């Protein structure tokens, strides 16, 4: 599928290598949490029982898929027999599952979607999204479009971005030409094996030599890919249209995005066929997207961005059931149809990642027959809070499953903050063995929490300190009495106090975060009961902590003042006494150099005051709940607000500043 | 400065500002500016934060290693260190050793606001001279002297009022006087003496706290504190100013409790990193105390 361009008639060794690449390609991005280890442990050094187990079926699929996988697979495993022998023994189970994964995933694409399901109606992706992609493709594939379109598909892993594209490719009858990252290590090995001599006419002459930079190769690929059609060995029917698909953007561009933009611009001028980028937004994905495809570039060369949502659980169920049904129809010997509840729990635990779900499903079907006894290694953690909060009582069996196939879902910061601040509580009647507090501590009694604060912090991927800063920025909205705030703010102060020593900060940071989150939850007495959690409050906007921008501003202006007033060594005096007065003093009596100084100081004080206006604004903004966590500030409406605000706050001082500013303007003309 | 002139004559007034570069053991580059003449050097080592130990050692070493060439003068140089109380403990210990080692070629003048933060080892090696803040009368006198030399007439009442408002800080008094001159000349006795903007701002903030005690108000106050911080007002100064304003506005019974909590959070503020947490905790605490007091009072009334 992906490798139409690769010559299949090469020597055995070459094709083995080629194939290893192919198998890797089949899952270019993360399927499950063990993303990093997967590639390393993939090549198996032993003929794994599960490989044998599936080899027969692989041949069955071969008739459907485009490349002879079975043969290739065999060569592949023998070819890699010597490598990576150290880390595979540890996880025979894992190794098995990886291979199986690969196989079934391709089954999903080749048969599940294309053969059995046949049409995009059965994709787990939402219909609107498919239509969107389809219409884009139709417009940009039509022959009268001059400039090439650039499409960017984003979304979480396993949302079906690539699958949509492939299915549509089948329906709209176009070819996909995919960029494959050249594997430097592989080439190096090859180079060694051939005794340091490159065989002429091999693919390397096409891809380039080892010393070629990734950037150059990528550029060459993009600019030449549309020129040549695939060689039609079997006598081509109709010349197909082509799109270029880039899934693995060379990671050098993460560091050097400008050259990437350059290549894209060049392509948009000269290129002829549409190009599709697929980016999954993981923890760093958003960063990548902003860096690689900034907004101005999107406008400039007309990039369309379609973002996919996680697969909804209903459509996920549908697909999974379909896969099960298909498997049943094939009646293979070692297939054990999973129960309905199992399928449901899989679809739930995968958190919208259909690829992970199918892998998990496959594992679940294996379970009964093989001797792989799956024991949950640790007890089922609160990781899958998503399920827990939905309040479905699950049999233990599902818990096990989730521990295999479940995705290590990370919480969005927004939700994590919400969890702490809204602090939902459980009905105490569900818990019979709760200890009672003595009567004098009665007002500290709280219903049991639904969440575990430490887990929430752990899951939202930021440091404890930063999390506390976020909490601090937002907690005031959620409290109704000042007495509660006293306690809450003291807890926050405690947490800062805990992390004061840099020596132990890294460890105590977590403790501090825990102290402050639990403190915040506990001290909110209005939400002490589970009954109160459902009602009240409503949606409140959350904000970014101002503290860090403030520190930055402070540092900047401090540096400015330091460079200006080199002869002052006592900064406190300078900032609290001399500068405020020098603002209102006459500057004409000073020497020229001094005057320049003071002028700059005027500017300096002016800029800081304008900064503080903006800050003031933010304070107003918060009240008006216009600045949300995701939003950047909107300068236009803040202007208006400031007019209102300045009247209330410090009109007097502002006037002085302005007078001074005028004064100094006049002087400038005099010079 | 006058002392130095006594020692060395007028040559000490040829000042120059120098940038000194130091490299820490961890290869971090530091830069610090000093004011120096041929005879002395003035530096504020606490500028460089926690790396001040290196600065002190290197600086004194370089100064002290060069003997005074001109034999007609005194055979030592003078190093003036300001804000010694802001030095880290580490640097103070380093200073202790260095100052003994180079006693032959250099003398140190250490300036600080309070000796309580200077380690005893240094205190015992120094001759402590307490420079008291000038009295109101003295400030009035100084102001009038200055005005006379500038050829201005300063009414006594105004001078006194400036001196009162300056909190016995002569620098402030002179600056205030200058500001008054810009504002209005000839002076009138009842003319307004302007305070620094940030102090007015802080006062308003304190009034806001007094007016209303609610989470929403606390949020507004936080915005104002942030603004002060961006104006490079140090957090401990904010804390002190707030306390002063709040104390003057509240009843006598509350004062002990308020001051106690202020001391508690001020201590935290010195130790911790995020000043706003502690300031806010203090404000919340004050709000609670004040609110409770008011409610009790109202209950008593009826």
Automatic annotation (TrEMBL), chain A:
Compartments in which it is found: Nucleus
Pfam families referenced in this protein's UniProt entry, alphabetically: Rad17
Biased amino acid composition, Acidic residues: 657-671
GO CC terms: nucleus
GO terms assigned for molecular function: ATP binding; chromatin binding; DNA clamp loader activity
Biased composition (Basic and acidic residues): 385-397, 625-644
Protein name as annotated: AAA+ ATPase domain-containing protein
From TrEMBL, chain B:
Chief place of localization: nucleus
SUPFAM superfamilies attached to this UniProt entry: P-loop containing nucleoside triphosphate hydrolases, post-AAA+ oligomerization domain-like
GO molecular function terms attached to this record: DNA binding; DNA clamp loader activity
Any one Gene Ontology BP term: DNA strand elongation involved in DNA replication
Record Pfam families: DNA_pol3_delta2, RCF1-5-like_lid, RFC_C
Gene3D superfamilies with a match to the protein in the record: 1.10.8.60, 1.20.272.10, P-loop containing nucleotide triphosphate hydrolases
Keywords: DNA replication, Nucleus
GO CC terms in record: DNA replication factor C complex; nucleus
Subcellular location: Nucleus
Keyword flag Cell membrane: no
Highest rank taxon of the organism: Eukaryota
Biological role: Subunit of the replication factor C (RFC) complex which acts during elongation of primed DNA templates by DNA polymerases delta and epsilon, and is necessary for ATP-dependent loading of proliferating cell nuclear antigen (PCNA) onto primed DNA.
Family, as annotated: Belongs to the activator 1 small subunits family.
Quaternary context: Subunit of the RFC complex, an heteropentameric complex consisting of a large subunit RFC1 and four small subunits RFC2, RFC3, RFC4 and RFC5; the RFC complex interacts with PCNA. Forms an heterotetrameric complex with RFC2, RFC4 and RFC5; this complex has ATPase activity but is not stimulated by PCNA. The heterotetramer of subunits RFC2, RFC3, RFC4 and RFC5 interacts with RAD17. Interacts with CNTD1; this interaction facilitates crossover formation.
Annotated protein name in UniProt: Replication factor C subunit 3
Organism: Pinctada imbricata
């Amino acid at each position: 599928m992906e490798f139409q361009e690769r010559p299949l008639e090469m020597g055995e060794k070459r094709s083995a290598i080629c194939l290893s690449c192919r198998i890797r390609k089949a899952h270019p991005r993360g399927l499950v949490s063990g993303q990093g280890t997967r590639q390393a442990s993939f090549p198996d050094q032993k003929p794994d029982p599960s490989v044998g187990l599936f080899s027969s079926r692989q041949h069955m699929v071969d008739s459907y898929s485009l490349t002879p996988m079975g043969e290739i697979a065999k060569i592949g495993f023998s070819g890699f027999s010597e490598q990576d022998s150290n880390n595979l023994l540890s996880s025979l189970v894992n190794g098995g599952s990886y291979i199986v994964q690969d196989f079934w995933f391709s089954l999903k694409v080749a048969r599940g979607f294309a053969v059995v399901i046949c049409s995009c109606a059965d994709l787990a992706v939402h219909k609107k999204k498919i239509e969107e992609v389809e219409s884009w493709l139709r417009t940009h594939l039509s022959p009268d479009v001059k400039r090439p379109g650039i499409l960017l598909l984003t979304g979480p892993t396993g949302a079906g971005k690539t699958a949509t594209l492939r299915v549509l490719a089948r329906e709209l009858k176009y070819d996909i030409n995919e960029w494959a990252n050249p594997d430097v290590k592989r080439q190096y090995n090859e180079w060694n094996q051939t005794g340091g001599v490159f065989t002429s006419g091999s693919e390397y002459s096409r891809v380039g030599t080892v010393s070629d930079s990734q950037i150059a190769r990528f550029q060459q690929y993009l600019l030449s890919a549309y020129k040549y059609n695939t060689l039609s060995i079997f006598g081509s029917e109709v010349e197909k249209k082509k799109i270029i698909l880039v899934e693995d953007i060379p990671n050098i561009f993460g560091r050097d995005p400008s050259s990437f933009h350059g290549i894209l611009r060049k392509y948009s001028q000269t290129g002829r066929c549409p190009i599709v980028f697929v980016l999954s937004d993981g923890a760093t994905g958003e960063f990548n997207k902003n860096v690689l495809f900034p907004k101005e570039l999107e406008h400039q060369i007309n990039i369309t961005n379609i973002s996919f949502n996680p697969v909804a659980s209903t459509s996920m169920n549908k697909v999974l059931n379909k896969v099960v049904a298909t498997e049943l129809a094939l009646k293979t010997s070692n297939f054990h149809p999973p129960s309905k509840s199992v399928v449901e729990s899989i679809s739930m635990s995968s958190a919208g990642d259909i690829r992970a779900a199918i892998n998990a499903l496959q594992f679940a079907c294996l379970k009964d027959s093989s001797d792989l006894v799956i024991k949950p290694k640790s007890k089922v953690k609160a990781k899958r809070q998503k399920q827990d909060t939905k309040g479905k009582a699950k049999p233990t069996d599902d818990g096990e499953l989730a521990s295999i196939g479940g995705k290590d879902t990370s919480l969005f910061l927004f939700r994590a903050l919400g969890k702490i601040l809204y602090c939902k509580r459980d009905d105490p009647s569900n818990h019979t063995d709760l200890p009672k507090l003595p009567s004098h501590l009665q007002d500290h009694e709280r219903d049991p929490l639904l969440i575990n604060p430490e887990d929430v912090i752990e899951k939202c991927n930021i440091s404890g300190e930063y999390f506390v800063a976020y909490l601090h920025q937002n907690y005031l909205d959620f409290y109704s009495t000042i007495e509660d705030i006293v306690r809450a703010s003291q807890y926050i102060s405690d947490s800062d106090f805990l992390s004061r020593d840099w020596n132990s900060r890294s460890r105590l940071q977590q403790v501090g975060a825990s102290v402050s989150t639990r403190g915040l939850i506990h001290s909110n007495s209005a939400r002490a009961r589970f009954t109160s959690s459902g009602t009240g409050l409503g949606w409140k906007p959350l904000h970014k902590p101002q503290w860090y921008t403030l520190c930055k501003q402070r540092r900047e202006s401090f540096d400015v003042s330091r460079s200006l007033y080199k002869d002052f060594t006592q900064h406190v005096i300078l900032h609290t006494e001399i500068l405020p007065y020098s603002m209102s003093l006459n500057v004409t009596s000073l020497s020229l150099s001094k005057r320049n100084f003071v002028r700059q100081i005027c500017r300096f004080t002016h800029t800081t005051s304008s900064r503080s206006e903006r800050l003031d604004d933010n304070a107003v903004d918060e009240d008006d709940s216009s600045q949300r966590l995701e939003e950047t500030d909107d300068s236009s409406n803040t202007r208006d607000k400031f007019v209102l605000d300045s009247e209330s706050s410090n009109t007097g001082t502002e006037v002085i500043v302005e007078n001074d500013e005028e004064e100094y303007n006049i002087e400038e003309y005099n010079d | 400065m006058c002392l130095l002139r006594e020692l060395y004559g007028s040559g000490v007034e040829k000042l120059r500002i120098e940038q000194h570069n130091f490299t820490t053991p961890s290869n971090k580059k530091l830069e610090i500016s000093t004011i120096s003449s041929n005879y002395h050097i003035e530096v504020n080592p606490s500028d460089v934060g926690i790396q001040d130990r290196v600065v002190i050692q290197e600086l004194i070493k370089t100064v002290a290693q060069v003997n005074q060439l001109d034999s007609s003068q005194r055979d030592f140089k003078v190093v003036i260190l300001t804000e010694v109380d802001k030095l880290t403990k580490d640097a103070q210990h380093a200073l202790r050793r260095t100052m003994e080692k180079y006693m032959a070629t250099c003398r140190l003048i250490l300036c600080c606001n309070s000796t309580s933060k200077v380690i005893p080892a240094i205190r015992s090696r120094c001759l402590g001279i307490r420079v008291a803040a000038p009295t109101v009368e003295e400030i009035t006198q100084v102001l009038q002297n200055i005005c006379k030399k500038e050829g201005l007439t300063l009414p006594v009442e105004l001078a006194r009022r400036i001196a009162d408002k300056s909190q016995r800080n002569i620098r402030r008094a002179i600056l205030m006087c200058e500001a008054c001159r810009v504002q209005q000349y000839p002076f009138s006795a009842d003319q307004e003496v302007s305070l620094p903007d940030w102090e007015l701002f802080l006062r308003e903030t304190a009034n806001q706290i007094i007016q209303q005690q609610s989470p929403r108000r606390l949020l507004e106050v936080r915005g104002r504190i942030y603004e002060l911080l961006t104006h490079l007002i140090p957090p401990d100064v904010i804390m002190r100013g707030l306390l002063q304003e709040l104390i003057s506005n509240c009843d006598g019974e509350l004062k002990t409790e308020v001051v106690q909590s202020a001391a508690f959070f001020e201590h935290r503020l010195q130790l911790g990193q995020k000043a706003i947490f502690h300031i806010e905790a203090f404000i919340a605490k004050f709000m609670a105390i004040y609110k409770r007091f008011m409610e009790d009072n109202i209950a008593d009334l009826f």
